[in-house]
Amino acid sequence: MTSPNPFDIFAIQNTIALYCLALDTKDFARLHHVFTPDVETIYPFGGKREGVQSVADAIQKRLSPVTSQHALTTQHILLSPDGHSALATTYFTGIHFGKGKWEGKEVTVSLST
């Protein structure tokens, strides 16, 4: 029987941070290092998406008219006893600053994942 490796927590934290950095830098190719190829998501702006590229395309379309900054806050990661899975809860705030016709507009979003 294997036991959880505490360094897995750092890997999970780094992956969650990479998600935010991918969005803020608009380097959506980095999402291939965040999600598994068979990812399924449901975003309020894009409905259900399957596959990393589909998810990346939906996010890119949504964030194209803004500059964003995502800040991670409270985080809890629970590793399973066998070390094969984990449950992560992360709070973050995303601030979106409009560009072009949205210049001067700002939207703040707070979520828990």
Q: What does this molecule look like?
A:
The protein is globular, with a radius of gyration of 16 Å. It has two helices and five strands. 27% of the residues lie in helices and 37% in strands. Strand 1 and strand 2 form a beta hairpin. The relative contact order is 0.19. The model has no long low-confidence stretch (mean pLDDT 89). The chain has a single domain (7-112), classed as Nuclear Transport Factor 2, Chain: A (Roll), CATH 3.10.450.50. With 113 residues, the chain is of the alpha+beta class. It has a three-stranded antiparallel β-sheet, with helices on one face. A two-stranded antiparallel ribbon has the order 1-2.
List its traits:
three-stranded antiparallel beta sheet; Nuclear Transport Factor 2, Chain: A; globular; 2 helices; two-stranded antiparallel ribbon; 113 residues; alpha+beta
Q: Could you give the order of strands across the largest sheet? A: 3-4-5
Helical proportion, percent range: 25-40%
Number of domains: 1
CATH topology, what is it called? Nuclear Transport Factor 2, Chain: A
Structural class of the secondary structure composition? alpha+beta
- Report Rg: 16 Å
Number of helices: 2
The CA-CA distance between the termini, in Å, is 30 Å
How many individual β-strands? 5
| Major β-sheet annotation | 3 strands, antiparallel
Mean pLDDT: 89
Helix and strand element order: HEEHEEE
Q: Which of globular, elongated, flat, extended, rod-shaped describes the shape?
A: globular
The CATH architecture category equals Roll
Q: What share of residues are in beta strands?
A: 35-45%
- Uncertain runs with pLDDT below 50, 5 residues or more? none
- The CATH C-level name is Alpha Beta
